[in-house]
Amino acid sequence: MSTKENRERIELLQGTLDLLILRTLLRGAAHGHAIAKAIEFNSDDVLQVEQGSLYPALHRLIKRGWIAMEEGTSENNRRAKFYRLTAKGRRQLVTETSKWDKLAGAIARILRPAEQEGKS
Amino acid sequence: MKRPKRMLEDLDRDIREHIETETRDNIDRGMSPEEARYAAMRKFGNVARVKEEAREVWSFVRLEQFWQDIRYGLRMLRKAPGFTAVAVVTLALGIGANTAVFSMVDSFLLRPLPVDQPSQLVVLAFQHKSGALDNQLSYPNIQDIQSQAAGAFSSVLGYDIGLDSLRVNGNGERLLTSYVTGNFFPSLGLKPYMGRLILPSEGAVPDADPVVVLSYSYWKSRFGGDLNVIGQKVSINARPFTIVGVGPPGFHGLHPLLDVQGYIPYGMLAVSGRESGFMSDRARASAFTLARLRPGVALKQAQTELDVVSERLSAEYPKVDEGIRFSAHSELLSRPDPDSGGQIVQVGTIFLVLTLLVLLLACVNVANFLLIRATGRRREMAVRVALGAPRNRLVRQLLTESVLLAVLGGVAGIILGVWCSAAIAGVNLKTAIPTHLDFGLDWRVFLFTLGVALFAGVIVGLIPALRASRADVNQVLHEGGRGIVSGRHRLRDTLVIVQVGGSLALLVIAALFTRSLKAVQQTNFGFDPAHVVNLSMDPKNLGYDDASSLAFYRNLLDRVRALPGVQSASIAFAVPCSYYSSSGTLDIEGYEPPKGQPAPNIKDNKISTDYFQTMRIPILHGRDFTSADDENSKSVVIISETMANQFWPQQNPIGRKFKSTDAKRVGPLEIIGVAKDARFSGLSGTIDPYFYVPLAQSVPPFVTLQVRTAAGTDSLLPALKSQVALLAPGLPLFDVQSMDDALDTMNGLLLFQFGAVLSGAIGFLGLTLAVVGVYGVVSYSAGQRTHEIGVRMALGAQPGDVLHLILRQGFIIVIAGVLAGLLLAFGVAHTLGDALVGVSPTDPLTYASVSLLLTCVALLACWIPVRRAMRVDPMVALRYE
């Protein structure tokens, strides 16, 4: 594994991971492990999050005020930190989602003709 | 900030819990506990990095990292003390040279005068149609500018410089005085340390105000800081004066270099031997003049107003001022005078550029060391990258190390620089005239050095840092310790080429300056300085008047000439290359100056009999002075060859007459002889016209006894001194030195010597840096190729082949560097222009010999590593891996 690939993946994940976290929390507060599991499960295991990178992302979102943290108890009755979406985060999710749609659409439009050319 | 802190504290727990949960999930899926834990940890990723990144979100991580970098950097530097020492010393030399040169430039050109609002001060000068710029104005013109250009200037102040004698309680001593107009101190905004300064009401009337203000430093040294000095009676040139005050500390007068000791109202100039009429005669231009711009008035506006005044005065006084044009110059750009300011700036710039080149070479050298080290640290860097260190973090780490080096070098450099400039400031200017050179640190020097050091740090560190961090992890880790392919040396080789080239340029310039000095020293001065000793004295220190001085001179000469070993002895006012001279404006019978040009102003000397024998200046026509040419006989004069050719071309000047404002006699002087030209001021350039009058007919303010001896001058000195002491007990002697020494003044050889020594030092630095650089690179690459050489020799290569292999690399670098350097030197030398005398900036001999020298020394630097390479034992080299 060369460091070059590694680096590219992190860069790809940075903005996207934030969006995925916000979307996951839309359904209600969750703790770290649950968020990771939810992302994997909901994407049919296509998106394999390097679970550790979740934590810096969570801290970043808290700092921006998009999510908040509270103490709670996990399924196994342990003390755990729960993260929930704030009003600001909710608004951010809307803008981020539409931005993402635009980006995805644009990329798709660019990629599709290229693929056809490649096939012919 | 409580929340983030708690979050970070709990982070460990969160991560632990996360991994445990994941492990349990994995066990539920049927993995063995060990397998489950391993899979969970792999899925989580690098725990350390996650923590690091989470912390980075919150904090002053950057600052923390910065400290960490510094600590780590210091540890790395301590671990390699040899490398650190060489790098710090190299940088210190480069930075120190810059600090020293800049502190001189600062003190000469940048430091403002210690007065109120110095930027408002401008220097006034004038010129006639095609004449040279003159920065001494006549008193009436100063008064007219003051009243007619009042819109531009709030005040116009003038001063003149005098070398007088101050007697206190019977003890006489030389005093460097400034005769100032009444508005001098008020318009500079200066306050007395004690007593009062010269008042605005003083100085406007000749001979009216016999008061003196002492400079602070003179008061401290001569009067021991006596608080009762105010009101004390002293005598200056045998005239009674009263001390009225002490000037502010740190003020040395307005004249560059001079340390003025006393301030006297302008109207008292007659005390210093100025002929009457110095305040009313528009032709007697002798006052250095400055003006203070009104707030908000630009130099250009002031010039416009001055142009109007010039035209008006030109029309009003056509006889003296026709075609006159007064001009205002920024004070900073007029040092030492408005005419030569540009030249000093040019010389300063040249030396700054040269020392910056030295610094650049030093940086290149250290960058090269770092590159070599970086190659050795490739594994370390690769491992750190593999462990997840971000690349920019590594660059920052390496940059911190090199900036640390530069800061250490900067501290050492500033100490070195201050020490150097103090040594230069302490140079003997070969004069008893008090001078003031202060190259001390001020904020400009400090900022400059700081900037230079940081610049050095970044230059030095950037290239190696970028390269080292680009290392490919896989390749480096698989390679083992070796695997440096020779193609990778290209950057390092380029740096050495830059270095060799740069130092060649420095050496060429150093050599040109040295040859220039040699050329000046070998100039035919027109007099023979060998075996002549000078002793200066001022009989006014004992209260003598002109008549008793003259009697003393005659007695002294009689006795000195009778001493064994004395070939001839004479007395003169001016000595060649000294800091003082006298000149007069001439009114020549039968000669009209060209329209619009002022009457000629020509330097002269007052001399006793035997002067031409002592100086060995031949008399070409007519006769020498005799003892019969005394105070009672008709006024006579001997003129120089150039003067004869200028005013009486193809004619016999003997018997012609002219008047001089400098002569004490009112009537015309009759030419009785023509002497061969001699250089009295300026050892290069054209020789100005000159004339001599008998000492007895124009007694000067002070004199120098000049004695030509058969052998060395030193042995005779005690006898000469005792003769003076016998005739005039207690008379102080100044500037007792051989004539050869006396030529080493700022007006003589000193600047040439200074240039030669300074550029020589810079060139030597450059040479050293180049040798160290070439040696470092060649020996390193030879070391790296030990294995290869071993293989080659095991396969049957002869030592000669190895020699060829290693030497070729060094040779190519050196030759490429020499070629680049020749081009650079050629370009730089052309900007030297006037600073070189008697040698062409493209002198082929200099270029060839310096190239040869550098090539030999650089190849010698290759030779040592090559010899080591040739002695390699194949078995040792192969087992080395």
Euclidean distance between termini CA atoms of chain A = 33 Å
Mean pLDDT across residues of chain A: 75
- Work out the number of β strands of chain B: 22
Distance between the termini of chain B: 55 Å
Structural class of chain A: mainly alpha
How many helices of chain B does DSSP assign? 26
Q: Estimate what percentage of residues of chain A fall within beta strands.
A: 5-15%
**Structurally, how many domains make up the residues of chain B?**
5
Give the helix level of chain B as a range of percent.
40-55%
Record the SSE blueprint.
The complex is a heterodimer of chains A (120) and B (881).
Chain A (H helix, E strand, L loop, with lengths): L2 H23 L6 H11 L11 H11 L2 E7 L5 E7 L1 H33 L1
Antiparallel strand pairs in A: 1-2
Chain B lengths: L1 H27 L4 H12 L2 H12 L2 H19 L1 H30 L10 E7 L8 E3 H10 L4 E16 L2 E10 L3 H5 L5 E2 L15 E4 L1 H7 L10 E4 L2 E8 L15 E4 L19 E9 L5 H18 L1 H4 L3 E6 L10 H36 L1 H9 L4 H35 L17 H27 L3 H7 L10 H32 L10 E6 L8 H17 L3 E7 L9 E7 L12 E7 L3 H5 L3 E4 L13 E5 H7 L9 E4 L8 E7 L14 E5 L8 E7 L7 H11 L5 E6 H4 L7 H35 L1 H9 L4 H31 L14 H27 L3 H6 L2
Parallel strand pairs in B: 4-9, 6-8, 15-20, 17-19
Antiparallel strand pairs in B: 1-10, 1-11, 2-10, 3-4, 3-7, 3-10, 5-8, 6-9, 7-8, 12-21, 12-22, 13-21, 14-15, 14-18, 16-19, 17-20, 18-19
